[in-house]
Amino acid sequence: MNSKTILSTVAILSLTACGGTGADAGSVESASNGASAQGGPARSISAEDKKKGSEAHPQLLQEFGGIYSGPQTAYVVRVGQDIAVQSGLGDARSDFTVTLLNSPVNNAFAIPGGYVYLTRQLMALMNDEAEMAGVLGHEVGHVAARHGQKRQKAAQRNSILGALGQIGAAILLGDSALGKLGQEVFGTGSQLLTLRYSRKQEYEADDLGIRYLASAGYDPQALSTMLESLAAQSAIDARAAGRDARSVPEWASTHPDPAQRVSRAARNAQKLGVSSGKRNRDAFLANVDGVMYGDDPKQGVIQGNDFLHPDLRLKFAVPNGFKMQNGARAVTISGSAGQGQFTTAAYNGNMASYIDSAFRQLSGQGQAISYGDIQRTTVNGLPASYAIGRVNGKSGQIDVTIFAYEFSKSSAFHFATLAPAGRASVFTPMYDSVKRLTSAEAAAIKPRKIDVVTVRSGDTIDSLSRKMAYTSYSKDRFLVLNRLRSNDGLRVGQKVKIVTY
């Protein structure tokens, strides 16, 4: 949640990143669909797809932290457009829009129209240019094989929008007013562009990405090694968060067994008969040096169940079982019992008007949401007000709550939450947790970054791990960040990555 952007916005947007499950797929040889790396007629991206992508692109930027402003951006764009040429699409360099996102999530995705996205966090996990080209090539493969269009049709056919399971489907598939409510809260217009791929489509994109690597002169094994690092990082993140370490990482969430996907990618790379290729490790490390790692304090940070924003001087905590995703305009909260967002709007000192405006924003141009009396209270010294409305969905009634806080005579923040009728209290602990950050608490929140260092005489994995800006799993994080094993030795002059403040 960007402190500069959020103070002027009244929109609430939520988009979901790519992932998914599905059926199995074939090998490299079967993954063409007119998108082969060599041969076959070149074709351009359709005007219709370009229009869809250009409409969704600004919303995706808002949701996923915006474009990263570091010098790494131009490098990622160049490599991404170079690998896109291998897809056989006409004039791919200009047709593809490659974006490095200011997001702390390990992810990459693509939408129709040639829009390809990579987060700075996933870039930081990579160890060479070939791995980055492999991930970008995988996403280009989705576009070349028109997977986005196919999954949109499948989603529309099966009515799978998935934001709240049955609760979300009840809202998103209801009448015009509820459809607008779902679009405003969950960004369903763009969500159709970012729904989960099937496993078959992910495998096919893997295969195409491998082919693009080989035709561009890169080591085709690079996608496999990147997937291996991602699975290892996911295990660390899960342990640190108290989750099952076998849970699947965001970008690899299309496969229940990441190790199998790694080995499959390696086998299919071998089938190409290319024994080696460029990795461009030095060039990559020179570019990744200094990239921000983890949360950007200007957008707020997520620490376990807590959200803290040093610039806005506020914090809150979500209940157990809920997760957060931070965007430029809002923090999205989701769980099986409900979903919501924390955001802001224009405030003139009239809380009743503010809450009414928030309800009207949710209903959009559709039928107004009827809500009860506005209740006033105080939360941790903050003047607060809330009201609950109720809407009818196909699977039952839904409680819509606006819970707002006055931080000054000219600024206010609020939660907009959805829960099954009669269960709105699931969010009460979250409402009660909002408070101001002290100056000391705000000052303690510092950005982390990647620091590429040269191994000196006497340096060991243990000694360098102790320099990591983490108090837990520092050695594990160091090993995964550099694709090392605990019994590996370091050589003088070798370059490695550490995370520092």
UniProtKB/TrEMBL annotation:
Origin: domain of life: Bacteria
Signal sequence, renumbered to the chain: 1-19
Record keywords, A-Z: Hydrolase, Metal-binding, Metalloprotease, Protease, Signal, Zinc
Stretches the record annotates as Disordered: 27-55
Keyword tRNA processing belongs to the record: no
GO molecular function, one term: metallopeptidase activity
Residue ranges with Basic and acidic residues bias: 46-55
UniProt name for this protein: M48 family metalloprotease
Residue stretches making up the LysM domain: 451-498
Cofactor(s) needed by this chain: Zn(2+)
Annotated Pfam families: LysM, Peptidase_M48
